Amino acid sequence: MNNELNKLFQQKFEQRTYRNQFNTSRFTGFELKHRETDLWIGVDPASFKPEMKESALKKIQSLREKLDNYIQSEPFFKKSLKPFQPTETAPEEAFEMAQAAEKAGIGPMSTVAGLFAREAGNEIIQNFSVEELVIENGGDIFALLKKNLVLSVFAGDSPLSERIGLEITPQNSPLGICTSAGTVGPSLSYGKADAVVVVTNDVLVADAFATAFGNKVKSPDDVEKVISQAEKYPEILSLLIICEDKIGVWGKFEIKILKEYI
Question: Least C-beta-crowded within 10 Å: which of 31, 42, 98, 213?
């Protein structure tokens, strides 16, 4: 990717303009920001309550304070790029992060976006009656669904970007649907994939595997090899990889062509 294209796609991601494609007839949406956390929350219109925003905001503020306090006492939890075992004094969320990341063989902070999405979602589910709920946090999604949902895949400057969708069925809801990329976005990746999408029942696990698989895709030639690795992990419901003009998909969910490919 040349520098000008990189700047354009980085800007699109940082400004979250892909959120303009969310279905506003199906979901009443609002954004929630606290420090580095930037959430889009969509609720089915019949269930939406304005009070949801304040409830979710308090939850992510409290969670951020809890993790910050813990990391001050155990800074390697944040720095480690390999599986890390927290001390006994760590909060429950830190243990969950470490356990999810260990499944994928990487460091616990790889799951932090998924954690914040899930916790905001659970806060709303526990305090309000909702039929459907989608929380997106920089490409990582916690979803409670009642019917099929087709998710458009943003994949940087790949010719397949936003032309491919993954049709998610509600049978395994709630779900984690997480995306990692080596060519766009702020997250650390050692790979060159334009998009790696992982779906599991646990959004933290999906977040960890998306990062781990993304690290392994250095070129289009790696797509098939990485796709084959997903079969070893029963937690993974689906995996989709886009690298340049090559796509690989495995699992129970089907891909949909959203636009004519030219």
Answer: 31
Domain that holds residue 34: 3-257
Element (H, E) at 40: strand 37-43
* In-domain check, residue 27: yes
Distances from the Cα of 180 to the Cα of 49, 92, 207, angstroms: 31, 25, 8
| E strand or H helix at 159 | none
Q: What is the pLDDT of residues 107-164, one digit of tens each?
A: 999 999 999 999 999 999 999 999 999 999 988 999 999 999 998 888 888 888 888 8
* 262 in any annotated domain: no
Q: Is residue 77 included in any domain, yes or no?
A: yes
Domain CATH code at residue 159: 3.10.520.10
User: Is the C-alpha dihedral spanning 10, 20, 247, 229 positive or negative?
Assistant: positive
Please count the structural domains in the chain. Answer: 1
In whole angstroms, what is the distance from residue 198 CA to residue 178 CA? Answer: 5
Q: For 168-203, give one letter per residue: b (16+ CB within 10 A) or e.
A: beeeebbbbbbbbbbbbbebebebbbbbbbbbbebb
